[in-house]
Amino acid sequence: MKRKLFKLAPALLILTLITGHATGAKSMTDVKQATTEQNVKNTISFVEQSTLSKLKGVSNIFHYYGKDKLVIGINEQAGKLGAPKENEDLTKYYRQKYGSVYTVNISDSKVTSIKDNDGMLNSLDLEFGAGYSPDGKYADYVKNDKSYVLDIQKGVSKEYSNINMNYAPKMYGNWSNDSNSIIKYGNRCFFIFDNTGTLKNTIKLNDNVNYVSGADFYSKDGKDIHFIGRMHENNSMKAGLYKLNVDTESITPIINLDYLVKEKIKNPGTDPVEHKGEYIEIHKQSDIFSYKILSNGNIIVDALLDSKLGLYLYDVKTNKLNLLTNYEGGLNFSVSPDESKIVYSITTPIYDNNNSQKDTMEGGSTNVKPLENKSNIYVANFKDNKLDDITYITKDQFAIAYKWSEDSKKLILYSGSNINHITFK
Fold first, then answer.
1. What's the CA gap between 258 and 279, in Å, rounded?
2. Which CATH number characterizes residue 260's domain?
3. 314 located within any domain
4. Does the residue 39 lie in any domain?
5. What is the gyration radius of the CA atoms in the chain, in angstroms?
6. Which candidate, 266, 268, 270, 305, places its Cα nearest to that of 284?
């Protein structure tokens, strides 16, 4: 889950700093307002919390399967590889930097290499494909501008392509939840493959679709594809979560929000020279950054909704978005497989208003910059459609990736510098 720290439009960011809040905009999806701060109780108990210190040069965490096995990327030349030299082959450099892919026994840190037809599977190649399948049996990756699917148990990979899909290496990819389909997106098309790389379907999106967000799409079985995007609707732009039916090629809005709303507000009077008059016009933005569809159909979304950054729960029965927790800055979250817990990290910018240069309310590029960022990681019980028993896992650390064990009792936190392994009661 990678995105910029600030998602607020410049004018809205300044207004929020001045007034302490931002007003809401109407949308097709109802937002139930709430005020939820980080009410930390520290009531969730850990049986064990340890650092996998024997693993050096870890570049990524791809999969957690069974009771104690991870799939990771390891840079074999950790600490020896400096910055790329002038005119150096960058593809070769970064393949060395990311290293190869291994399985690791958590109990003793014993590593075993993952191999394809040519030898060691490269971690960077796996980054550019759909990665590991949910059942851990296959890996989709891009190597030398060609797409491959690897049968991990057999150690045999197959190149796959299509004459109408020569841009395949540039496409985003995800596995279906049942591991039977690879779904890729590029050039305004969704491509559905089976787990051997055979193309089953191609769907070209209509002109109403303005934008599809990266690899943020999900499919249970390759039939319905959920994606974050923006769509033209009745001369306006909508943003939200949409569902594409593979058979009919129809798109249904699940969460549908006004992407940008203009509104006049009373002048806060912070700069009477630049802000003359009683009212000024501001732009308020809504967007969704990531989501998780729960087994009961409800959806947890990280979003900017009606000018409020937060983690929300979308109730499919009431068509309402209920705020779970708000934040300012950046957020990363993961739901346990049994949906009983949510782990999330929040990075909050810290400002010194005396030394910050303020932008104009009308917009433009802002010069307000945080002096530093404060990052904390929390875990909370998720019950009765809300966060409860919020507990610190660690302070001053932001997780790049989370991986839950299949039984939801263990959690891996990867921060780029170390790997924390946590066991819950």
1. 22
2. 2.130.10.10
3. yes
4. yes
5. 23
6. 305
